[in-house]
Amino acid sequence: MGVSDMRIHSGRLLGWTAIGVAVLGIAALVAAGEFFSSYTLVLAAVGVAGYAAYVGPYVDINPGELVLANPLRTVHIPWPTIQAVDGRLGLRVRTTEGRYTAWAAPLRRRLDEDVVEQLEAHRAAGHLDDPRFERPKPTIRWNIGVVCAAALLSAFAIALALGTFF
Prior knowledge:
Elements: E1 4-6, H1 9-31, H2 38-55, E2 58-61, E3 65-69, E4 73-78, E5 82-86, E6 91-95, E7 99-102, H3 111-125, E8 139-142, H4 144-162
Antiparallel strand pairs: 1-2, 2-3, 3-4, 4-8, 5-6, 6-7
């Protein structure tokens, strides 16, 4: 990651616990010959939700950009595009292209102050004095693993509801 990779540590513990419970529960269902059941669906959903909501998200403050990794997408925000930062009830960043919110902003730290401090350091060093006409834009990358897992769970739920398993 970068200079300051921030995650909610108690949330990560909760996420890994949910994943562990899901894996052990599904293993027990497989051992009992009950894999194709609604219990498997619920346990798999708990595991995917635990990862998506608590293990995967983070905020990364580094010299090149601010990274907001949320459950479904990750946003890479170059420093020159940031216009304002708000730290009330999480981290919200307003850029030249829109607004972005961090899912994993730890409330116990003044994360917005860390972001503003890095932004001011870039301004003071002259890194944001760019004479180009086009500014860099934030890039958004979908977290394909989480989206695919949710799609597979949905397909499994539909197949289970229709009784198409043997």
